[in-house]
Specification:
CATH topology: M1 Pyruvate Kinase, Domain 3
Distance between the termini: 17 Å
Protein name: MOSC domain-containing protein
CATH class: Mainly Beta
Radius of gyration: 19 Å
InterPro entries: MoCF_Sase_C, MOCOS_middle, Pyrv_Knase-like_insert_dom_sf
GO molecular function, one term: pyridoxal phosphate binding
Pfam families: MOSC, MOSC_N
Organism: Nocardioides glacieisoli
Strand content: 25-35%
Number of strands: 19
Low-confidence stretches: none
CATH superfamily: PK beta-barrel domain-like
Number of domains: 1
Largest sheet: 9 strands, mixed
Length: 281
């Protein structure tokens, strides 16, 4: 039976990945995942697609670092740590891609900190006080499904077998073009919440649900990938992969696909090492 090899939380949308050994699961996703977001002066999402340096902003909660005693701690080299409580103001309109949502603004010193961290004077930090206000994509969700600030669905899962196949395709394509194959891409490029050690590449195309740690996760739909996967999170440089190769092998309905979206159907705790029970179509 497959096992859960990796578990990742992203307290700040597009911020540094925070690996954990175990985490609580709620119907809206992993506890604390993507509940904070950077927006511009008009309230629109600012992601690492726009400002690559967001990858270097480290946001921790008590779930990702036991030393954190506030709701959120922000860190970046060259700046003092900033500790924040959950803001208590009234929610204001924000825009996540085409979605009009509500979020509570953080305090003024948080805005000053994130502006210094990103070297932009028009950005602000906001927090999702009530993820149940957001409904998910019609046709792929059920009544009551909700989330905070992920792109689409509460949880994503990727398999090591699929990544190995993708890296093989990337190397083969580079040789066909007379290029020197680059180092294999790490799983971090895809920022999945859950990493599973499946044996068959892209077996997840047939998954209907996963049960991990007693929590059932229903499959929503495949994850369409964007240019953010072409950014190296360490160097912040960009390249053509993996989109170039995904477009050859994993293109459907105009989207390049890798990993799948999940919706938790209950609450519980999942931990690295848990067995993964797969339901297939």
């Amino acid at each position: 039976m497959p096992k859960l090899l990796g578990l990742n939380v992203h307290p700040l949308k597009s911020g540094a990945i925070r690996p954990v050994r175990s985490i609580g699961v709620l119907p809206g996703g992993l506890r604390g995942d993507r509940t904070w977001m950077v927006v511009d002066g008009a309230g629109r999402l600012v992601s690492a697609r726009d400002v690559h340096g967001l990858f270097h902003v480290v946001a921790d909660t008590p779930d990702t670092d036991a030393a954190v005693t506030s709701a959120l701690r922000l860190r970046k080299p060259g700046l003092p740590d900033l500790h924040l409580d959950e803001p208590a103001g009234e929610p204001e309109p924000v825009r996540l891609f085409s979605l009009d949502l509500l979020a509570v603004p953080a305090r003024a010193d948080a805005d000053a900190w994130i502006r210094a961290a990103l070297d932009r004077d028009d950005v602000r930090l906001v927090w999702c006080d009530d993820p149940t206000r957001r409904t998910l994509q019609p046709g792929f969700s059920q009544p009551g499904d909700h989330a905070a600030f992920p792109d689409s669905f509460p949880v994503t899962v990727a398999s090591t077998a699929s990544l190995r196949q993708l890296n093989d395709w990337i190397a083969e394509h580079a040789l066909e073009l007379g290029e020197e194959p680059a180092a294999p891409l790490p799983m971090e490029r895809f920022r999945p919440n859950l990493v599973v050690d499946a044996d068959e590449p892209f077996a997840e195309d047939r998954w209907e649900a996963l049960t991990i740690g007693g929590v059932r996760f229903r499959v929503g739909k495949p994850v369409g990938r964007c240019a953010m996967t072409t950014i190296d999170p360490a160097s912040l440089t960009t390249a053509k992969e993996p989109i170039r190769t995904l477009a050859r092998h994993r293109r459907w309905d105009g989207k390049t696909l890798f990993a799948v979206h999940l919706v938790p159907e209950g609450s519980g705790i999942v931990s690295v090492g848990d067995e993964v029970e797969v339901e297939v179509s």
